[in-house]
Amino acid sequence: MVRDNWNFTANPFEATRTPASFYCGKPQEEALARLEWICQERQRFAIVVGVEGAGKSHLSTMALRRASGLGAETVLLSLRGIPKGEWLPLLLERFPLDYASRRESITDWQKLENRLRENRLMERSTVIFVDDIDHAPADAIAGIERLVNSAEPRFSWTTVVGTATESSVENISHALRNQAAMRVHLDPWDTDDVCTFLSTAIARVGGDPAIIPSATADTVARFAGGLPRLVSRLAHLSLAAAAGDGLANVDSSTVERVWRELYPVSAPHDSITRTDGPHDAGLERTGGRVRAVRKLFE
To answer: Relative to the CA of 222, which of 16, 52, 153, 181 has its CA 20 to 30 Å away?
Structure first.
């Protein structure tokens, strides 16, 4: 519906973590600069912290590309939901080991040490991005602690960067948190960043940025609290609702109605929807436009 109605070449607000869909707002620019310094200075460990939906995982994929551009060998591993005992084999799968190295009759940890030693001898840094480190099993935390604490030369050119949610960063062991050379805070977008993101995303797929006027973009920023995940979700569904209503562009009232569908007033709100508070009273639901949004869920 969205692509056909607005003549887009692709979905402007796709829920993927591709470079094309990444918008480098002011918080992302600052975070990437700090992570680049971490990698260049070969610091052993850093943590990226932000609320749910702030874009930590997408930031990790872009930081990985930057570190690769600096000559490092980079890998990315998400630890959310990984059972105990499986993190190390999954990590090794992400290294470009040759067939003989993978089949060698040694432990997985020895294979990892050999790869890190090889990179060190080639004067090539190794940067391991660990997404959702606050949800890692205990054996993964113990292994990461060994990587960042060991004084052995084979580990000296290895950097580990973990991402964590503010509400659960305490799940990471105190010893590991204390090893962080820097805690990088990823803040939500401000209104200017949201407006620029929306217009840039629409222009990228051949649309007219005027489809979402600046006043509407302000409304999106206000309801989504500047969180990239919510901004994209709200913008996408608002485009669908406006298309269903036959509108020439997305107005603020459409955004508000879509928000009510996503987070009804009677439903309990979690922390990331706290920006909804001031807008709860006196909003009237109109049957036709709400139905246009409900079609997405049928």
So the answer is: 16
Mind listing the pLDDT tens digit for each residue in 140-191? 999 999 999 988 888 899 999 999 999 999 999 999 999 999 999 999 999 9
Q: Which of 248, 290, 241, 282 is nearest to 265 (CA)?
A: 282
Residue with tokens 């964590």: 164
**Cα–Cα distance between 171 and 257 in angstroms, integer?**
37
Q: Beta-carbon neighbour count of residue 70 at 10 Å? A: 12
pLDDT of residue 265: 59
The one-letter amino acid code at 78 reads S
For position 288, what pLDDT does the model report?
Answer: 36
Compute CA distances 243 → 119, 202, 207, 230, whole Å: 53, 15, 14, 20
Which of 48, 44, 24 is closest to 116 using CA atoms?
Answer: 44
Q: Go through the domains of the chain in sequence order and give each one's CATH number.
A: 2-13+189-297 (no CATH), 26-185 (3.40.50.300)
**Per-residue model confidence (pLDDT) at position 16:** 81
Q: How far apart are CA 63 and CA 84, in angstroms?
A: 27
What percent of the chain lies above the pLDDT cut of 90?
79
What Cα–Cα distance (Å) separates residue 81 from each residue in 108, 137, 207? 20, 8, 38
Q: Which candidate, 185, 199, 219, 190, places its Cα nearest to that of 25? A: 190
DSSP per residue over 70-139, as a string? TT-EEEEEE-TTPPTT-HHHHHHHTS---HHHHH-SS-HHHHHHHHHHHHHHTT--EEEEEETGGG--HH
- Find the largest Cα–Cα distance for the chain: 69
CA-to-CA separations, 173 to 52, 127, 178, in angstroms, rounded:
20, 21, 9
What is this structure's pTM?
0.84
